[in-house]
Specification:
Blueprint (H helix, E strand, L loop, with lengths): L6 E7 L6 E9 L4 E11 L2 H7 L4 H15 L6 E5 L15 H8 L3 E3 L2 H6 L9 H9 L7 E6 L3 E7 L11 E8 L15 H8 L18 H7 L4 H20 L8 E5 L6 H10 L4 E3 L10 H14 L7 H4 L9 E3 L6
Parallel strand pairs: 1-4, 4-5, 6-9, 9-10
Antiparallel strand pairs: 1-2, 2-3, 5-11, 6-7, 7-8
Helix pairs in contact: 2-3, 6-7, 6-8, 8-9
Length: 340
């Protein structure tokens, strides 16, 4: 039997330009993840990608069709649709008519999670931090969790302390820690980190600011310029060291030291990154899969979890994650039967 208030929820996520929509499901009461369901990858054809890249009705109708196909693969009591605002920034996805999806899926559909946050002065992103808190609550004895989402451009960090309620000061902090891990191809081994590049990185004022914080478009210019001059094996070694150093610098500003770190995102598949993080951070480091979580479905899981929180009236963003003035919840919640 599910815990009172818990729901089977599904979430879907698409980052514009990517070749598939990811859907994932979980059991949650909005505060603790009680179980993780299946992950569904719905590939996009070239024709669909072309329509999604357009604007207006054609893009929205295509997106709604694809989302419905992905989300209908398993039973759910509520669904959430997330864009790049869930864990970071990026190009906007096509608009979605939640009432249409609710009718097709036969359950409530939550969209527009950023609206209430923006109205109260928040940045509108990232909005998936409460998932990190829920994951931390799955095993609270392990203490504060550092959830890392690392792609080719950015390292995003979410700190969650399960000993505190999510809306309490110090319970949740989210920040862009520094650069990500670019693709260097098969560089082999034997590269060494370039100290000049690392010094130029750490001299950036970004590292002096408290969470929440996002990197500026021109952040780390000197670092990237120097990185481009290095041999591939040295550039990769430098990028690995840069991620670890960025995080170590950020951890100095957290309320408590994390007791463990879990890595999501494409870069989690790079074993040398996990080794660099393990060496640099003073806590165990796991890939998402090592922690029993789907590493390619973080954003979809966050959308599923946010849908439950929104339906229960729980906060979905916090001062320490988006800069919003006070913890606030909300979404556009459409239910079956609302279509005229």
């Amino acid at each position: 039997m599910l815990k009172a208030g818990a729901k089977r929820s599904a979430g879907a996520f698409w980052r514009p330009g990517e070749p598939a929509v990811i859907a994932a499901s979980l059991f949650s009461d909005g505060e603790t993840v009680l179980g993780i369901g299946e992950t569904v990858t719905r590939p996009l054809s070239k024709a669909e990608l072309k329509r999604l890249a357009s604007s207006g009705v054609e893009a929205s109708e295509t997106f709604e069709t694809v989302l419905a196909e992905a989300l209908s693969q398993g039973p759910c009591e509520i669904a959430g649709i997330g864009g790049t605002e869930i864990m970071g920034r990026g190009a906007s996805s096509p608009e979605v008519n939640g009432a249409v999806l609710a009718e097709v899926l036969g359950c409530p559909v939550a969209t527009d999670f950023a609206d209430a946050d923006l109205r109260l002065g928040g940045a509108g992103h990232p909005l998936g931090a409460s998932l990190a808190h829920a994951i931390a609550r799955m095993d609270p004895d392990k203490g504060p969790l550092l959830l890392l989402d690392i792609d080719s451009a950015t390292t995003r960090a979410t700190y969650a302390d399960p000993s505190l309620k999510a809306d309490k000061d110090g319970a949740l902090l989210a920040f862009e820690a520094g650069p990500g891990l670019p693709t260097f191809g098969d560089t082999g081994t034997g590269g060494s980190a370039d100290e000049v590049a690392l010094d130029s990185l750490l001299s950036d004022a970004h590292f002096l600011h408290l969470a929440p914080k996002s990197t500026k478009p021109d952040a780390f210019t000197a670092y990237f310029d120097h990185l481009a001059t290095l041999a591939p094996e040295n550039a990769e070694a430098t990028a690995l060291a840069a991620i670890a150093l960025s995080l170590v610098t950020g951890l100095d500003l957290l309320p408590k030291a994390p007791r463990r770190a879990v890595v999501f995102g494409p870069a989690r598949l790079e074993s040398r990154l996990i080794a660099a993080l393990t060496e640099g951070l003073d806590c165990p480091v796991q890939t998402a899969e090592g922690a029993g979580l789907p590493g390619d479905a973080l954003h979809a899981l966050a959308a599923a979890h946010l849908a439950v929180r929104a339906a229960r009236g729980l906060p979905t963003s916090f001062p320490g994650t988006t800069g919003v003035r006070t913890a606030v919840g909300g979404a556009n919640l459409a239910r079956p039967g609302q279509l005229a």
